[in-house]
Specification:
Largest sheet: 5 strands, mixed
Strand content: 35-45%
Strand order of the largest sheet: 1-5-4-3-2
Helix content: 25-40%
Distance between the termini: 86 Å
Radius of gyration: 25 Å
Oligomer: single chain
Number of strands: 8
Shape: extended
Structural class: alpha+beta
Length: 148
């Protein structure tokens, strides 16, 4: 088996034994010191000490079926390194597997954050009430200028 490091790590000794003894959840395995995942014919690993964040990302894929159309949820595990860069997105077999994986990851690596980072909120667009307030302010300013 060929092991490829996601981080710049040269610790490749005894990875095969750790991989075989690791708990398998979908394509991800949780070993004693590393998190392993498969993509095609390669096995990637990242040591727990290099993990800063791991969380679920659910993508809704539009699907057309015989009885209509709908969105199918696809679960992914997103892994960030110690520099807080997204280094891997791994497909999970379902929501239940993703939840179990994150719970076990908390036990194996308590310093890893398992919550999705906050997204920056877009700027608020003025609504009808704010527009009407702005319009009334501008009218009152114009009337005060006329009076002067």
């Amino acid at each position: 088996m060929k092991f490829i490091s996601v981080e710049d790590s040269t610790e490749t000794s005894s990875l095969a034994q750790e991989y075989k003894g690791a708990r398998e959840i979908g394509v991800v395995r949780l070993g004693e010191t590393c998190l392993f995942f498969k993509k095609l014919f390669r096995i990637y690993f990242i040591p727990y000490k290099c993990l800063s964040r791991a969380y679920r990302r659910v993508l809704l894929v539009p699907a057309k079926m015989c009885c209509g159309s709908g969105d199918l949820p696809v679960e992914n595990l997103v892994i960030h390194n110690s520099k807080d860069e997204e280094v891997a997105v791994v497909s999970m077999p379902g929501a239940k597997a993703a939840v179990i994986l994150l719970e076990e990851l908390k036990v194996k690596s308590p310093e890893t954050v398992t919550v999705c980072p906050e997204k920056p909120k877009p700027p608020k667009k003025p609504g009808k009430s704010e527009k009407s307030l702005q319009a009334s302010k501008s009218k009152s300013e114009k009337s005060s200028e006329v009076e002067k």
